[in-house]
Amino acid sequence: MGVHSVLQFLIIAGCIASFSDASKPNIVFILADDLGWNDVSFHGSDQILTPNIDSLAYSGVAFGRYYSHAICTPSRSALLTGKYPYKTGMQGNPLGMSEDRGIPTNVRLLPQYFKDVGYSTHLVGKWHAGSSRREYLPTSRGFDSYIGHRGGYIDYYEYTIKEDWEDGQVSGLALFRNLTAAWDVEGYITDVYTDEAIKVIDDHDSSTPLFLMVTHNAPHAGSDTVALQAPSEVVRQMRYIESPDRRIFAAMIKKLDDSVGDIVKALQDKRILENTIIVFAADNGGMTTGLYANYASNYPLRGIKMSPYEGGVRVVGLLWSANLNNTSHYWDGYMHVTDWLPTLLSAAGVEPPTDVDGVDQWESINSNSASQRKEMFEIDDYTGYASITYGDYKLITGKPDENYSGYLGGDLRGVIDSPPSYIDAIADSKVYGVLHSIGRTFDTNFLTLRNKTIINCDVSTTSICYPSNNTVCLFNIIEDPCETTDLSATYPELVASMQQILDVEMTKMIPRILPTVIDPMSAPSLHNFTWDTWID
Ligand SMILES: *[C@@H]1O[C@H](CO)[C@@H](O)[C@H](O)[C@H]1NC(C)=O
Ligand SMILES: *[C@@H]1O[C@H](CO)[C@@H](O)[C@H](O)[C@H]1NC(C)=O
Ligand SMILES: *[C@@H]1O[C@H](CO)[C@@H](O)[C@H](O)[C@H]1NC(C)=O
Ligand SMILES: *[C@@H]1O[C@H](CO)[C@@H](O)[C@H](O)[C@H]1NC(C)=O
Ligand SMILES: *[C@@H]1O[C@H](CO)[C@@H](O)[C@H](O)[C@H]1NC(C)=O
Ligand SMILES: *[C@@H]1O[C@H](CO)[C@@H](O)[C@H](O)[C@H]1NC(C)=O
Ligand SMILES: *[C@@H]1O[C@H](CO)[C@@H](O)[C@H](O)[C@H]1NC(C)=O
Q1: Is 6 part of a structural domain of the chain?
Q2: Where are the extended beta strands (E) located within 316-433?
Q3: What are phi and psi of 447, to 5 degrees?
Q4: Tally of domains within the chain
Q5: CATH code of the domain covering residue 148
Q6: CA of 254 to the centre of ligand 7 (A)
Q7: I want to staple 312 with a disulfide (CB 3.0 to 4.6 A). Which of 70, 73, 423, 435 is the partner?
Q8: Residue among 399, 402, 469 to mutate when testing ligand 6 (max atoms within 8 A of CB)
Q9: Ligand 2 center to residue 178 CA distance, Å?
């Protein structure tokens, strides 16, 4: 069709560099931080309602098998590069504020590809891909403008990050506009990012296409001590939720869902919504317990953030566009975080690069046909585990942390009396209203679509498989999505051939720098109490 073949012609004609064209789709990529599988209502639960996010899923494409990596820095590196994190040395534990490490500067990032074909590129929110040197920062890596936190999370009101060093705690402001500390900002960070994203949209010159990433802090814990933060009047709306911690978490999610509604409304007010592709996705599974626990739930999936089990890597994802051939569907093909780079470039009519691990899924998503992906790897030499998904099967080897690998979060699902009406919440949502105003509301049988996303498992099993030095675990994740039954003894030949593919893949690994080194020159007290760059 039009844009794609015209662009292909122009690529062949070699005049792509001077070509800028408002008919190319705008792209708005919204990323949530530590959001669990069971924390959005389009996955079946009425406990925490996300009517704006759900309305995009019901009128776009809800992904049933979208996979990311289990930890923030690796998953964000994969999203930005289209490469597995172990191919760039970015696997393993997330970056600390005092670490001199970042995505190698010889690797091209997603915004650079879009900038090269005439897009205006903006990032609002979390970076977490390197902040010790100016050359690692978003404005050096393809973004025209940036406001956000450079590290893994931020206090929702104070915008600080604390780290525990050998001789005590250090703390500094972690919010920056381009290259300078953002001392002027006030408010709840989710609202701050929403307002900044709307400003980017309002100020956008519509004669060029827009590439906007909004990478929320929500619903990540604000720190390891003051774990969860939300406006008290929103928390009070969640009294029907039994767990007091989960109530605060639900309020954080509501602010995130409202943000999605406000961004969609801003796109429509600017009259560019109908030429915009919107992605909403989670960076990894929810962190039910342990370090930076946020009371998220991936239940009934097994495992949480930091584990290679499904709860750590099979995450929330959807794509919306007014111009899909096949809307309102549940797509259950494998989609991997590295696939976004080639897929979104393809959607924009740009030939994707060949030196990435991601595959172009645009036609498959658009026409609701089979996924282009057969295998996925999760390799982490730092934590010490590796897994390969091949067809219906997943093999897990090494030593995943057992604390993060069980069936967690089932006890957080309780409600007192009954939650508010889901149907009313959808009908009252901003996104539903916007879609209605442009004649693009979804089918009334969206509850049928919703039912397709529900995972039902019996997880009362008493002997669940953990790999050890000499044993592995093999699961059929299509028939047994909750990884209850180890099949390694049943299919030894399959284990051997999957292990062989995994071993070959592991030879391609660039080792991660070990261990994490704190550079004392990063101390906020040396930089006006901010976490600024310190090596230039
Ligand atoms: C989508 O529809 C257009 C016509 O509207 C057609 O040219 C194109 O081939 C279709 N794409 C797919 C993937 O079906
Ligand atoms: C950030 O940099 C961009 C590009 O130079 C500029 O347009 C924008 O105004 C800058 N923003 C701030 C807050 O300085
Ligand atoms: C939409 O998806 C269905 C499968 O669910 C398929 O049969 C149909 O051909 C697709 N339509 C288009 C236009 O690709
Ligand atoms: C798992 O949790 C237990 C109990 O909280 C703790 O003692 C142990 O150190 C944890 N294991 C790891 C690997 O963190
Ligand atoms: C969805 O599933 C529930 C539980 O199995 C069932 O009661 C309901 O009728 C289903 N709804 C639709 C619209 O299919
Ligand atoms: C597994 O191997 C590691 C490293 O070689 C060793 O430290 C550990 O004791 C072994 N564990 C078991 C249960 O054999
Ligand atoms: C240093 O920090 C203070 C806030 O504590 C701020 O008002 C001031 O502008 C900062 N100075 C510089 C040079 O950035």
Answers
A1: no
A2: 317-320, 329-336, 375-380, 385-390, 393-398
A3: -70, -25
A4: 1
A5: 3.40.720.10
A6: 33
A7: 70
A8: 469
A9: 6
- Whether residue 524 is preceded by a cis peptide bond, meaning omega within 30 degrees of 0, is no
469 lines ligand 6 (CB under 6 A): yes
Tokens at 251, concatenated = 């309020």
d(CA 460, CA 199): 49
CA distance 24 to 14: 18
Alpha helices in 154-212 (DSSP H): 189-203
Give yes or no for residue 325 CB within 6 A of ligand 1.
yes
Take atom 6 of ligand 3 and give the residue whose Cα is closest: 368
Please indicate, yes or no, if residue 203 is contained in any of the structural domains.
Answer: yes
Is residue 17 predicted with pLDDT exceeding 50?
Answer: no
Residue 8 dihedral angles phi and psi, to the nearest 5°: -60, -40
Query: Who lines ligand 3 at CB under 6 A?
Result: 325-326, 329, 367-368
CA of 274 to the centre of ligand 1 (A): 17
Give the pLDDT score at 22: 53
CA distance 31 to 420: 26
Count the residues in the chain.
536
Cβ–Cβ under 8 Å, residues 531 and 524: yes
Residues 116-162 pLDDT 10s: 999 999 999 999 999 999 999 999 999 999 999 999 999 999 999 99
Q: Which of 159, 175, 179, 528 to mutate to test the pocket of ligand 7 (most atoms within 8 A of CB)?
A: 528
Q: Which residues lie across from 278 on neighbouring strands?
A: 28, 320
Give Dmax over CA atoms of the chain in angstroms. Answer: 65
CA-CA distances (angstroms) from residue 166 to 133, 161, 169, 170, 228? 23, 16, 8, 10, 26
Kindly give the interhelix angle for 189-203 and 244-269, rounded to the nearest 10 degrees. Answer: 10
> What are the φ/ψ torsions at residue 392 (nearest 5 degrees)?
-80, -5
For residue 177 and ligand 2, the question of a CB distance below 6 A is answered with yes
DSSP run (H or E) holding 125: strand 120-125
Q: Are 519 and 512 in contact (CB under 8 A)?
A: no
Residue nearest to atom 6 of ligand 1 (CA): 1
For 369, the 3-state DSSP assignment is coil
Residue range(s) defining the domain that contains residue 158: 26-454+463-526
- Identify which ligand lies nearest to the alpha carbon of 383: 4
Task: For ligand 2, atom 6, name the residue with the nearest CA.
Answer: 145
Alpha-carbon torsion 464, 32, 109, 337, what sign? positive
Using a cut of 0.90, tell me whether the model's pTM lies above it: yes
Query: What are the structure tokens assigned to 286, written together?
Result: 């929810």
Residue 11 falls inside a structural domain: no
Domain assignment of residue 39, yes or no: yes
Among the bound ligands, name the one nearest to the CA of residue 289: 4
Minimum-distance ligand to the CA of 401? Answer: 4
pLDDT surpasses 70 at 431: yes
